[in-house]
Amino acid sequence: MLTALAGGVGAAKFLEGLCSVIGDEQLNVIVNTGDDEIIHGVKLSPDVDSVMYALANMEGEFGWGQKDDTFNVSDYFKNYKSQQFSIG
Q: What is the pLDDT of residues 20-63, one digit of tens each?
């Protein structure tokens, strides 16, 4: 059993490669939550999401977010409040 400390897209890519060598059932991951924030009342954990989506083979085209996700609600909210980060 191996435990890794991780956070973000780079760590997610590394962990994908590591799992292909040791097997995902042999890996525990402790993921950074220092970048967590609340947007529109929703708690976001971007590093946790990036690692989970990558290891589940469902990451978005940019290396973060979910594959085939839309940003319809986030785009709607931009009409009323500016935001630096869009959520799907």
A: 999 878 899 999 999 898 877 888 898 999 999 999 999 888 77
Q: What is the DSSP string of 70-82?
A: --HHHHHHTTTS-
**Nearest Cα residue to 54 out of 22, 6, 88:** 6
Distance CA 54, CA 33 (A): 17
Ranges of H-type helices in the chain: 8-22, 46-55, 72-77
Read off the pTM.
0.78
Instruction: State the Rg of the chain over Cα.
Output: 15
- Tokens describing residue 21: 């060598």
